[in-house]
Write a structure and sequence with these properties.
By secondary structure, this protein is α+β, with helices and mostly antiparallel strands. Helices cover 38% and strands 24% of the residues. It has 5 helices and 8 strands; from the N terminus they run αββββαβββαβαα. The protein has a 5-stranded mixed β-barrel. The radius of gyration is 21 Å and the shape is globular.
Length: 176
């Protein structure tokens, strides 16, 4: 009986290890999101999704499973004259160094109850902050209740202004 149990344990180990490796590998490439609850992507939580396309620089389309959703970028406003530059920057940011289309969205609670408003993360960098830091967007608290990145985004805007990047080069020279 003990010999039979040992062989069963061995069989369980052989089957379990490849399954675990597959799960970890899938997570590394964004296929599986272990940290999501049963409800899926929720406000105030992180959700790994597949990037599909840029609709406007303030709104992108993502796919979770078979369903596509639009996500509005939280805490920023991009003037229309900077949309072409911002769109190109968003594409290059998301495609980035690693050539897989998965990003993480951190959702915000909003006044209007929009479910898909949030911060876009890729490889430890926040897209919203990068756009403000490059001078392609202004910090703007749209309809977010509690923006935990207020000071972070305001600091990026201040830095862009002092370095006269993007839109701040024109505004501070008296243009626009």
């Amino acid at each position: 009986m003990k010999a039979l149990l040992k062989s069963d344990n061995l069989l369980v180990k052989i089957i379990t290890v490849p399954a675990l490796v597959c799960l970890v590998t899938s997570y590394a490439y964004g296929v599986v999101d272990i940290f999501e609850g049963k409800e899926g992507c929720m406000k105030g939580k992180y959700c790994k999704v597949k990037f599909v396309k840029v609709v406007t620089p303030e709104k992108i389309i993502v796919k979770r499973g078979l369903k596509a959703h639009s996500v509005e970028l939280a805490g920023i406003n991009i003037p229309k004259e900077y949309w072409p530059e911002a769109t190109a920057f968003i594409r290059s940011f998301i495609e980035g160094i690693i050539k897989h289309p998965y990003i993480t969205v951190e959702f915000e609670k909003t006044k209007k109850g929009k479910e898909w408003v949030g911060y876009i993360w890729k490889e430890g960098l926040m897209l919203n902050w990068e756009l403000v830091r490059m001078g392609l967007a202004k910090y703007w608290q749209k309809d977010i209740l509690e923006n935990k990145y207020d000071q972070f985004l305001q600091g990026a805007e201040f830095k862009a202004k002092t370095e006269r990047k993007g839109m701040w080069a024109k505004i501070l020279k008296g243009g626009m």
